[in-house]
Amino acid sequence: MVETGHAYAKINLSLDIVSKMDDGYHNLKTIMQTVDLSDEITLECLPGEGFSIDSGRPYLPGDERNIAVKAAHVFFEHTGISGYHTKIEIIKNIPVCAGLGGGSSDGACVLRLLDKMFETGLGLETLETLGNKIGSDVPFSISGGTKLAEGRGEKLTNLPPLPQCYILITKPPFSNSTPELFGYIKCEKIRARPDTDGIIKALGNGDLGGIARRMYNVFEDVLPRGKTEIAEIKEVMLDSGAPGSVMTGSGPTVIGVFDNKDNAMTAYERLKKDYEECYLTQTIV
Ligand code: C5P
After folding, report:
1. pLDDT at 75
2. Ligand 1 atom at shortest distance from the alpha carbon of 250
3. 247 partner at 20 to 30 Å CA-CA among 156, 169, 177, 281?
4. Would you say residue 69 has pLDDT above 90?
5. From ligand 1's centre to the CA of 84, what distance in Å?
6. How far is the CA of 26 from the centre of ligand 1 (A)?
7. What's the order of all strands across the beta sheet hosting 254-258?
C-alpha cells in the first residue's frame, strides 16, 4: 500500500506570547498561514513491523525523534492497527529549523496519509488531537489555511483567507534554538506586541495593507546579538515595496508580503544574491 502527498510550509503573520503555563510551555496567540512551498512524502506500508525513514538529510533523526516517525507511531497506537512496516520517504524542499513548520507539516501529512491508506476516517478533530501529541504546530498543519492558533498551538480558529498576494521567504544561513528563544521571553517585559485583533479585522475586510502593517513577532525582541541578517533581509523586503515583513515562528526565516509580483521579484533577485534559501510563494487557502 502506497500513498503520496504534499506537506506545506506555514508562516506566522503574527506571533504573540500571552503567558507561561505551569508545564513550562507558553500560551500563544499566533496567526498562521499555509504557503505553496512543500515537502513531498511517500508512505509505504508492508507486512512486518517498525519504521524506516529516508529524508535525504543525514543530520535529521531516523528514529522516533523524527516527527514523521512519531506521527506514524501515534497513528498505529491510536487505531490499534498492527503488522506493518512503515517506510517513509521525504523529499525535503522546506528549509529545516527555519520557523516554517516543515517537520510539523511532515508529521501532519503522515497522519493524513495513514488515515487515507487504512480508511480509518478519523476526522479533523481526532487528527488534530493526535497531532497535538506530536508537536505544537502539528494540529494547524492537519488542514492548514489561515488560522488563529492559541494555547500551545492546539486551539484553532479558522480566519478569512489572506487576500491574493506574493510571499517572499528568505532564510539566513543559521538556525535559532526554539526552546532557547522561549527561555529568553519574560511575558511581563514584552515591549511590543502584534495587533492580532487588528489583523483579524483586516483579514475580514480583505485589506492586505492593513494586515501587513500590523505584522509582528515577539521573538524579534529577544534575538541573540549578532543575528543582523534578520534586520537586513527585512530592510531589503521593505525597501523593495513590501507593505510588511516579519520573522516567522522562532525564525530565523523572514517573510515579506507583497501586493504585486514586480516588487516581489525585485526583492527576490536582490536577496537571492546573498541568500541561497530564498523562495517566492503564494498562499494556499
Ligand atoms: O511542541 P514543540 O516540540 O514544537 O515545541 C518545541 C519547544 O518549544 C518546546 O520544548 C518548548 O520549549 C517550546 N514551546 C513552548 N510553548 C509553546 C510551544 C513550544 O514553550 N506553545
Report:
1. 98
2. 8
3. 156
4. yes
5. 31
6. 7
7. 244-247, 254-258, 166-171, 277-281
Is 20 one of the catalytic residues?
A: no
End-to-end CA distance of the chain: 29
Ligand 1 pocket test, candidate residues 67, 182, 187, 250, most atoms within 8 A of CB: 182
The amino acid that residue 116 corresponds to is K
Q: 203-219, pLDDT tens digit by residue?
A: 999 999 999 999 999 99
Q: How confident is the model at residue 235 (pLDDT cuts 50, 70, 90)?
A: very high
The atom of ligand 1 lying closest to the CA of 136 is 1
CB-CB contact of 219 with 15 (8 Å) = yes
Q: What cell does 169 get? A: 521567504
Residue 137 designated active-site: yes
Distance between CA atoms of residues 215 and 247, nearest Å = 9
CA of residue 25 to ligand 1 center, whole Å? 6
Selected catalytic residue, list 16, 29, 137, 171:
137
Q: Are 78 and 38 in contact (CB under 8 A)?
A: no
All cell numbers assigned to 134? 506530536
Chain segment 134-155, per-residue pLDDT in tens = 999 999 999 999 999 999 999 9
CA distance 135 to 177: 15
Ligand 1 site residues (CB inside 6 A) read 25-26, 28, 135-137, 152-153, 178-179, 182
Ligand 1 centre to CA of 29 (Å) is: 14
What's the number of CA atoms in the CB half-sphere (13 Å) around residue 72?
A: 27
